[in-house]
Amino acid sequence: MRVAIVDRPIDVEALVAEVARHSNGASVLFLGTVRDVNDGRDVSGIEYTAYRSMAELELRRIAEEAAERYDTVDIVSEHRLGVLELGDVSVAIAVAHPHRASAFDAARFVIEELKRRVPIWKLEQYVDGTREWVEAGKSSQPAALGEGA
Amino acid sequence: MTVTVLLFASYADALGSSAITLDLAPGATVRDLIDRLQQLRGADRLPPAPLVAVNQSYARSNQVLSPADEIAVIPPVAGG
Asked: Would you call B51 and A145 a contact, using CB atoms and an 8 Å cutoff?
């Protein structure tokens, strides 16, 4: 298991290789990429910033929870920071497991929890030259988090 | 006691800084910190009960603070 917050392009093939093991019959790779439209606005790029030390710690906690819940230590996740262009990979999660169902479930768990808990923010840059903080988390973030989930 | 509070993203923009120091009474809680924070100029752009992390873990509003704590106010997260 390994997690990292990085400032360079994510080498997705390296992540898949990292979780490979002869006892695993399934590998799942999730990639999050920069999309060209958000909320009806044309996006030209996204600047990702983070509370870096906590982001890495929280991502590690999530990977540990996934490892325990789905019974595999073969989980690797990287999230990239900085200015990313359309199509760039912002986050990658590779999971391998003896069986596919748990590999899919574990990868899904990591990305959903990451989006809910890891302190990373998007400053979206639009084609019209404006920029805005994305606060999509506001609607989906459980109130319970503020009370120490 | 004096505590340092880290601010990020839209909250840093709202308060015009990425770190501020606040004077709090000894034994102050996260709730007290938020009340003090809300008095600052620009804080009207923050929600009534923003998330707070203490020593890199999300904190309850009744958690007691100490000057050595690493305190951060966390805007709605948007990773991925």
From this structure: yes
Q: Do A121 and B77 touch (CB under 8 A)?
A: yes
Interface contact flag, A135 B49, Cβ < 8 Å: no
d(CA A41, CA B51): 28
Q: Does B21 touch chain A (CB under 8 A)?
A: no
Tokens of B79: 């990773």
Per-residue model confidence as pLDDT tens digits over A99-136: 999 999 999 999 999 999 999 999 999 999 999 999 86
A138 and B80 within 8 Å at the Cβ level: the answer is no
For B18-56, write each residue's pLDDT tens digit: 999 999 999 999 999 999 999 999 999 999 999 999 999
Measuring CA to CA, how many Å separate B58 from each of A66, A116, B19? 19, 12, 18
DSSP code of residue B21: E
Both tokens of residue A97? Answer: 């497991």
A37, with CB counted inside 10 A (0-12, 13-18, 19+), is: exposed
Q: Using an 8 Å Cβ cutoff, are A70 and A9 in contact?
A: no
Of the candidates B39, B23, B17, B78, the one whose C-alpha atom is nearest the C-alpha of residue A133 is B78
Which tokens sit at A142?
Answer: 């459980």
ipTM for the predicted complex comes to 0.95
Cβ-Cβ contacts under 8 Å, B29 against chain A: none
CB-nearest partner of A120 from B51, B72, B77: B77
Structure tokens that stand for A70 in this block: 């789905």
